[in-house]
Structure formats: C-alpha cells, structure tokens
Automatic annotation (TrEMBL):
Gene Ontology CC terms: mitochondrial inner membrane
Name recorded for this polypeptide: Phosphatidate cytidylyltransferase, mitochondrial
Needed cofactors: Mg(2+)
EC number: 2.7.7.41
Stored Pfam families: Tam41_Mmp37
Pathway: Lipid metabolism; Phospholipid metabolism; CDP-diacylglycerol biosynthesis; CDP-diacylglycerol from sn-glycerol 3-phosphate: step 3/3
UniProt source species: Iris pallida
Source superkingdom: Eukaryota
Amino acid sequence: MQDLAQDVLTWKNFYLSGRLQKPVRILVDNWDIRKVNKVNLKAATSAALLLSPSEFTEGDLYANICSLSYMGDLRMLFAEDKNKVKKIVQGSYELFRAMYKPLLQEYVAEGLLNCQHYSSQGVFKQDCGLSSTNYLFSSLPCIPQSQMAGGNLGSNGAGVATRPLISSRQEAANCVRRVLRRKVRASSVRQALSGFLAAGGSNAARYLAKKMSKSWKSRTLT
C-alpha cells in the first residue's frame, strides 16, 4: 500500500498511478485510496490538457488521459490493438465521466476551461496562455516536474523548492511526452520480462504470438 500511495502521489514509476487513472474495481482498500487517488486524477487531467488543442471534446480528453500510461509502451508497437485506447474509452465512457466530471467542473469554475455544451459529449475550449499553462504544469507531481526541469526544481532563496516555469505551451507538452514515454517504456520492459519469467518461455511465446496476431489485424482492417 505504501508503494501504491507513493506512485499515485509522485508518479515515481507511473505504473500503478497509470492504472488508477482509468476505471478499476477496487476490491480491498485499507487506506481509502480513492481519496489519495484524487491527486493522481487531477495530475492526469492537467497532463492531458497540456497535450490537447484549444478546442476538444470530452471524449478526446478521456482518450488523452487514457493514453498517458501507454506512451512509450513497447508493446503498443507490435503486440497491442492500435485502437486499444479508443476501445477502453468507448467501453467505459460513463465511468470516465464519473471520475473526471468534478475536476472538469472545477477547471471551468477557475476559468481554465469553457464548456460549450455538456450533454452526451461535451465540447470544451481551454485557455492556452502562459499563465494557464504554468498552472497546469504546477499540478503535475513533483518527480516528473523535477525530471522535466532537468532534475532541479530551484529554490526561492530560503531553502524552499520552487516550481519550474515553462516558456510555452509546446514546451510543456513536449516535456510531458518525453518524461512519460521514458517512465512507461521502463515499466513496460520490466512487466514484459516479469511475465516471461513467470509464465515460462513456451507459454510467453504463445501469448505474445496471439497478441501480435491481434495487433496485426487491427492495423490491416480498415
């Protein structure tokens, strides 16, 4: 549970935190992880907004949130359905809405988002100015922020760490992509190796062959 809470709050490995950014069924919870996870959901929303254009649909935003934990995943290159993110969002759309609607309403109230209509598929416009960009960037956990800032968050002269400032929206988006791809790539390699060792060579090979076949079909079907 300590490892879970640490990853949710800091994105140290961005594995468990990535899982909890999507709808899951929690079976055992001694730490009230749903409350802890609110920090993770807000950070995921901020990261997805930084990767979104000035106007987007609610579904587009959920797809961006869902895709965060697949950036840099080696399996997405050859062993996963290319439409995996789209299918996850379509199959769990109302669950995504239940998770993220309070945060979207909060950002609307703060003036970061403008909701054109909120029916079955809301359409949003966001403020892409530098002030809003730095606000969203500051909502990300400290570990990815530190890595985006080259490992140094700086100091205000009194020994208190300060948040790095971003000079443009494009810089912020590129930082998010670079750091998350690196984290997800490392996690996906560890998971693949663990699965291979746990299942054994022959079982792992058969599983991989099935995944690759499914991935190939998704890329050849129009």
